[in-house]
Amino acid sequence: MAEWKNFNINKSQVEYDSGRAYLIKMPHNSSYDGYKFWIGGKLVREGRHGAALRLGVLDDMEFKLFKNGNGRYNQRDIIAETTISGAELVKQFGVTDAISQASNITIMKKSRPRRQKFILATWWCQKTCSNRRWAMAFEYQTLALDKFKRLKVGALFMQMGSGKTKVACDLIRFNADKIKQVLWLCPFSVKAGTASELGVWLPPEIPVRIVGYETVSGSETCWQELLDYVRHSKTFLVLDESTFIKNGHAKRWERLKLVRMECPYCIILNGTPVTRDEWDLYWQMQMLDTRIIPFNESDFERLSKGIIRISVS
């Protein structure tokens, strides 16, 4: 039976925090000095004091460690990789008093803290359910999924940390028999964290390609490749952090609109969809479907003059 272990690390060992995942440096006194690993944000909580974080792992989990070069030109290159178990990870951090808990179906008992139940149920789902459809969800996530099940396009505007990614992944799994692949657009800075989180919520049999918005606007070759990618197979398009497509006159928006037209399913995700005025919302809806706001630019401009402008303080 696998055991769930919680242990504390110093925040100085966090090299990068994407908001969804953490890049952790291995201790200098360990056998893997110089290595790093990604861990999902759902497995990390505040530690026993202000300078600590608490990590929760199962001893049969697998963690991929990697090491970057130290030279001037290979600082971003991976020069070594290895995989260790959760039990070995705890050992390498020199933890001898890690909190252990049995992990089985009893994790669903109400006596467990809600946050802990959520993490354990996620792992249980991965280990025992091939399609992972029984992962624990909060009530508002279930309501959102029920709303989107009958739609091909939609906008999921939820606060940061409320589980937008999980709802999107649940929707992808629901339509798995109607699509062949997933194209996930997000800011380049959160690609690694997104990949880590999708590894939790999506089964490996669904092909996923993650691309940064900056790549689409900066590389015509990559944009053409994306067009070819979505034209040959039915694609579920996810536009994460959709404020990156709030300007309908930008090259990025125009290119992504052509990509969107080739995808039968599309959802946009954002926690703050309006950062300036109502035009932010207009162009995001135009990306989804022109029938949502059935006005051209001039008509919408005249309409907007007769309504209260949205201001963000």
In brief:
With 313 residues, the protein is of the alpha/beta class. It is built from ten helices and 14 strands. The chain has a five-stranded parallel β-sheet, with helices on both faces. It has a four-stranded antiparallel β-sheet with strand order 5-6-1-9. It has a three-stranded antiparallel β-sheet with strand order 2-3-4.
Using brief descriptors, characterize the structure shown.
about 325 residues; alpha/beta; five-stranded parallel beta sheet; four-stranded antiparallel beta sheet; 10 helices; 14 strands; about 25% strand; elongated
Structural class given helices, strands, pairing? alpha/beta
CA gyration radius, whole angstroms: 22 Å
The H-and-E topology, N to C, reads as EEEEEEEEHEHHEHEHEHHEHEHH
Low-confidence stretches: 96-135, 308-313
Number of domains: 2
CATH fold-type name of the largest domain: Rossmann fold
If helices are DSSP runs of H or I spanning 4 or more residues, what is the number of helices?
Answer: 10
Reported CATH architecture of the largest domain:
3-Layer(aba) Sandwich
Helix content: 25-40%
Describe this structure in words.
This protein is an alpha/beta fold and 313 residues long. It folds into 2 domains: 3-102, no CATH class; 139-304, Rossmann fold. It is built from 10 helices and 14 strands. The chain has helices at residues 86-92, 114-128, 139-148, 164-174, 191-201, 213-218, 220-231, 251-261, 278-288, 297-304, and strands at 3-10, 14-17, 21-25, 36-40, 44-46, 52-58, 62-68, 78-85, 99-102, 153-157, 181-186, 208-212, 235-240, 265-270. The strands form 4 sheets. A 5-stranded parallel sheet has the order 10-14-13-11-12, with helices on both faces. Strands 5-6-1-9 form a 4-stranded antiparallel sheet. Helix 5 links the parallel strand 11 and strand 12. Helix 3 (139-148) packs across helix 4 (164-174) and helix 7 (220-231) packs parallel to helix 8 (251-261). It starts with a strand and ends in a 9-residue tail after the last helix.
